[in-house]
Amino acid sequence: MDPLDPNAPADYLVGHIEEALARDPRVNEQGLHVTVTGGRVLVDGTVSTPARHEAVAAVVAELLPGWTVSNQADVADYPEPEAEAMEALS
Amino acid sequence: MIRVAAVGDVHVGKDSAGTLRPHWQHLDERADIFLLAGDLTKRGLPEEAAVLADELRGLRLPVVAVLGNHDYESDREKDLADILGEVGVHVLEGDAARFDLAGRRVAVAGAKGFGGGFPGAMGSDFGEPEMKAFMRHSRTAADGLERALASVADADVRIALMHYSPVEGTLRGERLEIWPFLGCYFLAEAVDRAGADLAVHGHAHGGSEKGVTPGGVLVRNVAQPVLRRAYTLLCLGADVPVGAEAG
User: How far apart are CA B122 and CA A62, in angstroms?
Assistant: First the structure.
């Protein structure tokens, strides 16, 4: 993917970064939230594996070389559930 | 009582090998049936489905799945269903599977579903061919779900399994602007017309866990980022007989 124009309005940068994170085969996450401000890119949300977490930063760095990437996404690591009784029918 | 374990959006890739099985290998001790609500793989590749199949291989309870949008990314959805079928997973799309569980006839009817929106804020089967195709795909998926539920009307317990959301209630938390991409009321209408005891879906990672259809069927969003648990475990009919009429 070609680098983005770093002088483009932040809204457009956000749109292109979110699209790249959804489509890049290293990540393929649609639910990540991107914020662009002051030469910094913040990414929040959840990814499934540590490898995808690393890839988020790599993809953003390729799009905006030299910018600071704050990768605040969580890696899914979930506990076992408690059983829950449901009322059968309303 | 039927114990239903369910999770969606596990997004298995080649980097997921060995991460899910520790949570699943003793599921039969806690649950009677395991539902997977779509987005089983990261980008719909057969090698990703093979990783998931290894995670599921030999589980000693029925496993029923629908595919999600990620599973269609590489145009290999039929191969995915075959690979999972080889380890005993029932992959549904407009059809149903039946089981005898804890002395009850349990049926799961499944369809991926699609977007389209909800009354007052939805697309129409009108205008450009692309828009018509979008809404017709949603209609086709919902019609398949309704037919599948109707085909198992004699079951003691019926569960509707889909990827996209049938209701707005489980989308609370998601930005309103994207709700038409997250679900469609056609699915809820199908569930209410054909009847079900529970509707389960995924897809809405930022949504809410609990909802209900306009006709009163309980809905659960089991997308793993919503659950923040390895899966959810629902005990249907723990207090009153499943299938009892509302009193």
Answer: 37
pTM recorded for the entire structure: 0.93
The Cβ-side half-sphere exposure at B201, using a 13 Å CA radius, reads: 36
Q: Compute the distance between CA of residue A75 and CA of residue B74 in angstroms, rounded to an integer.
A: 24
The candidate with the shortest Cα–Cα distance to B41, out of A28, A5, A31, is A28
Predicted confidence (pLDDT) per residue in A7-60, tens digit: 999 999 999 999 999 999 999 999 899 999 988 999 999 999 999 999 999 999
Question: Given an 8 Å threshold on Cβ–Cβ distance, is A81 in contact with B42?
Answer: no
Q: Which residue of B has its CA nearest to A31?
A: B205
Angle subtended at Cα B138 by Cα B137 and Cα B142, rounded to the nearest 5 degrees: 115
Contact call for A88 and B240, based on CB within 8 A: yes
B90, B203, B98: which is closest to B159 by C-alpha?
A: B98
Alpha helix (H) residue ranges in chain A: 10-23, 50-63
Q: CA-based angle B208:B206:A40, to the nearest 5?
A: 155
